[in-house]
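User: Structure please.
Assistant: Input sequence and predicted structure:
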Amino acid sequence: MPSALGLFWDVDGTMAETEGDGHRRAFNAAFAERGLPWRWAMADYGELLRISGGEERLRHWLAMAPPGAPGDQAGQWAMAAELQERKQVHYGRIVAAGGLAPRPGVVRLIQDAAAAGWRQWIVTTSRRRAVEALLSTQPFQPLGSAFCGWICGEDVTRKKPDPQAYAMALGQSGLPPRQVVALEDSPHGVEAARRAGLRCLVTPSRLTGRGRLTGAAAVVDHLGDGPQQPATVLTGPALGCQPHVDLAYLEGLLHPQGSPFPVSPAPPGS
């Protein structure tokens, strides 16, 4: 019997465009609720995403002494915890309102991998509450049973780009790194997967962009959903005759020496 293969999913930016359309809006709602004069634009939030974790992001922001921030670290950390809690409430409302759709190919690939017996795990630095909010809405809700387990922000002491979350998923799943593909959207995610010994397929989100993705086995604009939404390979093996990332493509990433796929050259400026 062949060894089981694994697919480890990041959530924010990978499954859906949650960063700009969800978390950023929720942070701004929390600021407005508190009467604070801060509003994070897309460009601002893109820069803040260099800090992993929502509460850590808030601490970083407050340490820069924006108007209305406490002057001492203890006060800043207390405010960050309070704002993070309110942000989670607002994020849940945004998700429940149906404002976040899956990125192309996400539902298809999760379902195909489940049908083929792949062991799928969620590996994210987001809090469990945020993941639960997303996966409790349509069309994500039917996908919950496809996952063997979740590693979330509360489960680790060191967030991506540290490999701790992926190491925990490997340990709990019983899978060796050589049998797992990680799906990520950001440089932090790629670095975490690489340091855990995993092959990583990247689908850059709108906010993470396409730079600094060193170590990715392949980069595609999205996973693809049939001829109406074909995927484009930016770096790595070409897709072949199908217009989307499928399980055969993922297996090719795990065995690059024996892969039947030709390699697409990196686009200029990538």
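DSSP finds nine helices and eight strands in the chain.
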